[in-house]
Amino acid sequence: MRSNPLLYLASASPRRQELLHQIGVDFTLLAPDAEEDAEALEAALPAEPPADYVVRVTRLKLEAAVARLARRALPAAPIMCADTTVALGHRMLGKPANAEDAHAMLRRLANRTHRVLTAVGLAWHGARGPRTAMALNTTRVRMAPLTDAQIDAYVASNEPYGKAGGYGVQGRAAAFIARIDGSYSSVMGLPLFETAQLLEQAGVCA
Known about the structure:
Blueprint: E1 8-9, H1 14-22, E2 28-29, H2 50-72, E3 79-88, E4 91-93, H3 99-109, E5 113-126, E6 129-143, H4 148-156, E7 177-181, H5 184-188, H6 192-201
Parallel strand pairs: 1-2, 1-3
Antiparallel strand pairs: 3-4, 3-5, 5-6, 6-7
Helix pairs in contact: 3-4
């Protein structure tokens, strides 16, 4: 670990790590402790709109990461968190629990347009004390018609697991995406334009 980190990334997502590297940002991982219930932070509230959900969860992740940094007595540096959800109308599609769940999600998304919402949060110490900033990106994704055979083959690849909506745009599912209106990197899990703006606020330059 660097003695003076440039940025802490409180996310285990390899895609977010790859995207930060893409824009030349160095970082140190700040993963949750074994006793932290990271999944509990992602529980949705009844009738919660997708945008409210993803911002709230990101804020909770950020608060947990700030407490984690203090608990570990690590050197101070800005902390970044993010969360992504897929919404079809008012319905959110999280990470599939099993093959049946993944198949059902992809069947719902096929031949329709859905939204991918990614929130990014940054916490740092400014000249006047602790500061927090949030950004939200909403991107519309049109998925092509899919046969059951195509869905079954994709699910069998194990790609859907751990991904909101049951697919990863950076993998085999790229062949299913007919159109993206918005940010490709946001669909991957980290909107780079908004991320760069937040980092600039905290004095972290790519």
